[in-house]
Amino acid sequence: MKHASRAAHGGLLTAASVVLLALASAFSPAxxxxxICAGLAAALPLSxxxxxxxxxxxxxxxxxxxxxVPGKRYALAYILLFGLYPLVKYGIERMRKRPLEWALKLGxxxxxxxxxxxxxxxxxxxxxxxxAGKPPAVLAALALAAFGIYDIFLSRCIALLGVLFGKRPPDxxx
Length: 174
Prior knowledge:
Blueprint: H1 2-26, H2 31-46, H3 51-68, H4 72-82, H5 85-93, H6 98-121, H7 136-164
Helix pairs in contact: 1-2, 1-3, 1-4, 2-3, 2-4, 2-5, 2-7, 3-4, 5-6, 6-7
């Protein structure tokens, strides 16, 4: 029964994430906030120590979002950052060495930035809005600052999820 309950929980989190990403496509002004909220669905199992379930929610949501969600930029943002980063963060923070953790997190941010830059220069991703024409160094500095803020925000949200939904029960170990 425990496995069925966990599978149902993962299915509900996946469905909620896909719906949030679809809503992000439909309501562009709130798109990025909804995309961040979709990423929190993969973080919920992590707040209870259920890493496997978090990975399954991320993979299932990524596949479904790539197929179903009309706004592919939100699906791509989920796949590369908002869905994946809670898992990366969880793995890094298990080290319990803060300077090394931040170095690895910023390394991830730089690798992600390099991947986005490669997609932009190859024409596979379009730079629009105020970012078009800005110097790359300014964009990189702003991206790293935003990433740091997002990391702190995500930490607070994961802690809040742990408080709201209680600590994991003793029989929920993986």
